[in-house]
Structure formats: structure tokens, C-alpha cells
Amino acid sequence: MAGDRKPGTRPKGDRRAITLRVPRGYFDAYDQARDAAGFKNMSDYLNAVVARAHSLQPPAYATPGEGDSGQQQLALELQAAS
User: Is the dihedral of CA 36, 40, 71, 68 positive or negative?
Assistant: First the structure.
């Protein structure tokens, strides 16, 4: 039954893993930017940033906290950066 699904993160579709190692001194800056943009996890944040850097539309799941006011703010910030 559909109601028997266990709680947890929602499926994000067909994806492929990329391992990214960053200089230790950069991580705090990335983490602060992720938090300021309203993303719960680094993967979704970096997915949105990289997609925009390549003139691609970020996947629907790569948006900050569903339904919060940060979504429009982030879209404008990412557009300005590209």
C-alpha cells in the first residue's frame, strides 16, 4: 500500500554519484553559503550551483527547504551569479 512507505528522504530519481574533494579551508565557506541559501544538504546545494554555472535548470529537488521563502531569493542570487 502507498501509505506503508517508511519516513525518510523522498526519492530523487535517476542520479549518478560524483565524489568531490575540496580544500579543507574552503569547506566552511561552502557550508555557510549552503545554510544561507536554505539548503538542508550540501549535495542539493552544489547540484543547484553547478547546474546554474552551466546554464542548466537545477533539478526540482535541488531547491532550498520545500515551500520556504528562500526559494525565490536563491533563484535570483544564482541568476545574478551566472
Answer: negative
Is the separation of the CB atoms in 51 and 62 below 8 Å?
A: yes
Supply the range of the domain harboring residue 42.
Answer: 23-81
pTM: 0.65
* Sole residue written with cell 538542508: 40
Give per-residue pLDDT as tens, 23-48: 999 999 999 999 999 998 899 999 99
Domain count for the chain? 1
> Which residue matches cell numbers 523522498?
10
Which residues, 6 or more positions from 33, have their beta carbon under 8 angstroms from its beta carbon? 45
